Amino acid sequence: MTEHHQHSKKQLQSIVTHPRTEQLFMTLISFFLAFLSVALIIIVLQNAGFDISMDQLYRYGVRDIIFTSSGLANTLYWTTPLIFTGLSVGIAFRAGLFNIGSQGQMAMGAVSAAIWAATIVPNTTFLTFLAKSPLNLVITMFIGGIVGGLWGYIPGKLKANFGAHEVITTILMNLVATNMLQFLVGSRTYSPFVNRSSVDAYGQTEVIVKSAKIEPINPSVSNFLNYSIFIALVIAIVMHIVLFRTRFGYRLRATGLNPTAAEASGINTKKMTIQAMVLSGALAGIGGALLVQGTFPYRYNLGMESTLGFEGIAVALLAQNAPLPIIIASLFFGYLHQSKVNLDVNTDIPADLIFVFQALVILFASSPYLARLLYRRMILDKTAKNKSSMLQSNQQEEES
Amino acid sequence: MDTGPNQVAIVLENISKSFGKVRALSNVTIKVNEGEILALLGENGAGKSTLMKILSGLYQPDSGRILISDRWLSQLPESQRVKNQNGDITEGLHEITISNPREGMLLGIGMVYQHFQLVESLTVAENITLGDEIVKSKFVIDDELMFETIRTLSEKYGLPIDPKAKVEDLPVGLKQRVEILKQLYRKANLIIFDEPTAVLTPLEVEELFNTMQELKKAGKSMIFISHKLREPLAIADRIVVMRKGEVVGETTPSTTTMADLATMVVGKKIVSSAERAKTQTHQVLFEVRGLTLENPSSPKPLLNNISFKVHTHEILGIAGIEGNGQTEMVDTLVGLRKPSSGSIVFSPHEGQTVDFTSLSTQEILNSGIAYIPEDRGTQGLVQDFNITENVWLAFHGSPETAQKYAEGQQKTHNIQSKIFLPLQLMKTTSSKIVNTFNVKAQSINQQIKNLSGGNQQKVILGREFAKNPKLVIASQPTRGVDIGVMEQVHTNLINLRNEGAGIVLVSADLDEILKLADRIVILYEGQIVGEMNSGELDLEELSHLMISGTYSEEENTK
Ligand SMILES: Nc1ncnc2c1ncn2[C@@H]1O[C@H](COP(=O)(O)OP(=O)(O)OP(=O)(O)O)[C@@H](O)[C@H]1O
Ligand SMILES: [Mg+2]
After folding, report:
1. Is-contact B366 B394, C-beta < 8 A?
2. Residue A1 buriedness (CB in 10 A; 0-12 / 13-18 / 19+)
3. Residue A250 is nearest to which of B20, B364, B396, comparing CB atoms?
4. Which DSSP string do the residues of A255-319 spell out, in sequence order?
5. In angstroms, what is the span from residue B451 Cα to ligand 2's centroid?
6. Which one, of B131, B172, B176, B125, lies nearest residue B149 by Cα?
7. What crossing angle do the helices spanning A166-185 and A135-162 adopt, rounded to 10°?
8. For B194-211, what is each residue's pLDDT tens digit?
9. Does B61 contact chain A (CB < 8 Å)?
10. Which whole-number Å values give the CA distances from A127 to A140, A142, B147, in the listed order?
11. Which one of A307, B56, B344, B489 has the lowest number of neighbouring Cβ atoms within 10 Å?
12. In this structure, are residues A285 and A147 in contact, taking their beta carbons and an 8 Å threshold?
């Protein structure tokens, strides 16, 4: 055995046994298992007499998305809000909090940004200058962040002061958000911010001023994909820095990993809980604002947030709450979201199938027993054999 | 029973195990006889726990074999026997593989963990039978039979316990007994105790030793790990010493002494260097007055009107059996609990006083005190943080302290930033601490949970001493560290004291208190029931106070 050969083998060994590699493989195995399960479900459905055309499934669920530039662009369009909700859930998780409220936080951020840029700015005399100022693009974003942050603050405060469990309170805040939206834009009779300009248009705000809009990157490819994806990427990187390079992030992680030790080291864990929830809500809120700012016809539409908030939970789980992997996970879930839309529009195939797939990926990824078993059997055993043969040859060399 | 004392029960042969680049065990061979208590000694990080984890099935060895005796094999349940009969047979020994703790259990190897694996809200009997329940029908537990079985079991081995008691109501010693019974219920042949005495009071240790003697009579083999040398001398049949992943010696209690054993463990002679020097100026540094902490669930307060003073150049020992308010008192001193009444006044400099009762924990810690919490696992460390991040727990509130420690006068790192972590300073500080305290780790980026127990404790000790504190509040500072490190910690404490610091030392180890303290107060049921100067110690009186809370004369005069 040449020295070089041995060296590279050792390297391989250390790569394979590295926890990150294991994590990556286990994620891939989770995908594989989810894929198999969905295939099984389809077969069962077909046998039960449902007409699921594989051809259509492939055409609209895969080919039209992955092999066309507009499909890819639309995938990226969904990636943007998913990065935000993924970060929102991920940051809260890092602080030991399970924020199920990103959905409501995002919706509230979206509607507030729309109200600000469509109603308040043009109708308030001392603010009208903003309709022309590029500053408004950022301010609108921040409005979404502030209101989303408020939607996070309330559960955070309730947890810190009264020990109310955030899972319950954030779910309730989602309900409050739903009803709030209904009030704000849902009705032509009483909603203060509904678009009254057309007869059949209810459930939407007016169009936002031009300065708040974010243009599509290349309208000839996709009307959807816009420049806000770059904001998402920057914020994901910023969140990475916040978590791992700042004093705030350090305290946040300590609180999440071991609140008792954090407290004993002087960290005010209650304050951290509130701050983390505010940040979490703000991220979702900004995601909502950007959704309004970047989507034609540039207004808030009831339900435009879709289930992006809940999908953020999946994104965060898959990415283990790490900001940079959240980008990748968002890409994947962006693809699934687009395929769901495609199937809905073009076929009779229930788009819920994609939901099932999403859920299964999460199920397999978050209960890693099966995946780990497979990983150990398939990959580690092989390298272990290599290793022991390597050891033996080492010993022989030493002896001679 | 007809177990010959020299019948080999189990052999670990040429076991090696590496974690990454670290070789935790290299070619370790030990054997345990039937009905034998084998003590395993060695420095922190020597590989004792790793070896035991291999034996119990938690880890797999990289190479080496585990062999059990014919007789052992024949006692096993059918399924296990068949599975394991395929291996080599040499001199009545069978090679076995233990792929996970469940298999280890089925093979009759049980481990009593230091952190108990008990469900607090269940009864003793339920805990013991958990996972192997005694049932009437498929889904219904047969309570009567369960209690009866456990009662019989506990009588059989002479380990009295109330099967119906809730585990949460039991003192530590009895919880440990539940763990032992759990292993016996699962028909363990070999019981491993990894530092069982670290959390026990001296009385409980005695009880445990009686238990072990009983088990020995019943033919059980045991492996016992401890850092307190008098314990293996008292209980073991044979003592094996490990160092740096290898077996370096073997002896028996009758042929060795404490001093020899110490030399064997550390590899060189231990010299206690520091002495409590005579010092002149004594000012009150820290004064606690009338400290009371109510108990929300009982009219009896957790702390009842506690008052004491700590002077400069003084170590105040808080003696007492664990569970008499020590935890609550230390928590209150550092602001983790707010007292119902009383004051805690710290005077770091003449004319300057701070009242801790009105400060947050962060402010208290920033005022120049070191705090060594009692339970390193939950209070002292974040297991998923690496060494550096754990070191930083002591400095994140005042990076200046770290700067002073790491760089002395020459300040090269900018720590002004309110936003960013001073990563470079964190690394320098952590490296310096790891070197000073000789923490055995792959690198300062290693996760703390992968360090041996004693090395984790060293990280805490290192970072707290690095603060160069005026006042130290130390709870069980040497729990889990080897004798070499213990000596170093004692030296550090004494040096600090000689330089003028005050130290509050809470320890379950009476030897430690007697060795270090200038003055001792005795805590009993949340109250201070007595005080003694180290010069005028009456040991009998001290233990009497610890156990009953009263002076013995009082009883005599009654
Ligand atoms: N899971 C792990 N990953 C990496 N290294 C480990 C792991 N477990 C143990 N080690 C390393 O193996 C060595 C032996 O550790 P072990 O816990 O067996 O020591 P020990 O003799 O029990 O020490 P102590 O007296 O402090 O408990 C140490 O250097 C430790 O850092
Ligand atoms: Mg150990």
Report:
1. no
2. exposed
3. B396
4. HHH-HHHHHHTT--HHHHHHHHHHHHHHHHHHHHHHHHHHSTT-S-BTTTTTTHHHHHHHHHHHT
5. 9
6. B125
7. 140
8. 999 988 878 889 989 999
9. no
10. 12, 16, 77
11. A307
12. yes
Q: Among residues A165, A374, A193, which one has the least CA distance to residue A300?
A: A193
Burial class from Cβ neighbours inside 10 Å (0-12, 13-18, 19+) for residue B4 reads: exposed
DSSP code, position A378: I
Cis peptide before B160 (omega within 30 of 0): no
In this structure, what token pair is assigned to residue B212?
């072990």
Strand partners, B523: B528
* Crossing angle between the packed helical segments A247-257 and A228-245, to the nearest 10 degrees: 70
Cβ contact A267:A255 at 8 Å = yes
pLDDT tens digits for A309-349?
999 999 999 898 999 999 999 999 999 999 999 998 988 88
Please say whether the beta carbons of B159 and B185 come within 8 A: no
Residue ranges of alpha helices (H) inside A95-134 are 102-115, 121-123
Helices (H) and strands (E) in chain A, counts: 18, 0
**Distances from the Cα of A7 to the Cαs of A2, A13, A327, in angstroms?**
9, 10, 34
B419 within 8 A of B431, measured Cβ to Cβ: no
Q: What is the mean pLDDT of chain B?
A: 88
Contact B482, B438 (CB under 8 A): no
Rounded CA separation B369/B398 (Å): 12
| pLDDT tens readout for residues B53-64 | 999 999 999 999
Q: Which residues pair with B522 in a beta bridge?
A: B319, B530
Reported pTM: 0.89
Phi/psi at B260 (5° precision): -60, -45
Q: Which residue has the least CA distance to atom 19 on ligand 1?
A: B45
Q: What is the secondary structure of B32-78 as a DSSP string?
A: EETT-EEEEEE-TTSSHHHHHHHHHTSS--SEEEEEEEHHHHHHS-H
DSSP structure class, residue B528: E
How close are the terminal C-alpha atoms of chain B, in Å? Answer: 50
Lowest mean pLDDT among B198-207, B323-332, B511-520: B198-207
Question: Which residues numbered 289-348 in B keep a CB inside 8 Å of some CB on A?
Answer: 334, 336
Residue numbers in B near A369 (CB within 8 A): none
> Is residue B410 over pLDDT 70?
no
Please, what sign has the CA dihedral across residues A254, A259, A263, A267? Answer: positive
Cα distance between residue B530 and residue B550, in whole Å: 8
Rg, chain B, Cα only: 25
Nearest to B482 by CA among B516, B438, B518, B447: B438
For residue A351, give every residue at least 6 positions away whose Cβ sits within 8 Å of its Cβ, in sequence order, or none.
Answer: A340, A341, A343, A344
Give which of B169, B130, B161 is closest to B146, Cα–Cα. Answer: B130
Task: State ipTM.
Answer: 0.88
**B470: helix, coil or strand?**
coil
Q: Which atom of ligand 1 is nearest to the CA of B42?
A: 21
- Identify each DSSP E strand in B461-507 by its residue range: 471-475, 502-506
Is the CB–ligand 1 distance for residue B22 below 6 Å? Answer: yes
Structure tokens at A209: 């001023």
B47 CA to centre of own chain = 16
Question: Is pLDDT above 90 for B75?
Answer: no
Structure tokens at B245: 């992943």
Task: Please state, in angstroms and as integers, the Cα–Cα distance from residue B15 to each residue in B95, B278, B474, following that order.
Answer: 13, 52, 38
Interface membership of A20 toward B (CB under 8 Å): no
Task: Please indicate if any CB of chain B lies within 8 Å of the CB of A254.
Answer: yes
CA distance to A3, A241, A353, B482, per residue, from A268 (Å): 54, 21, 45, 34
Residues in chain B: 558
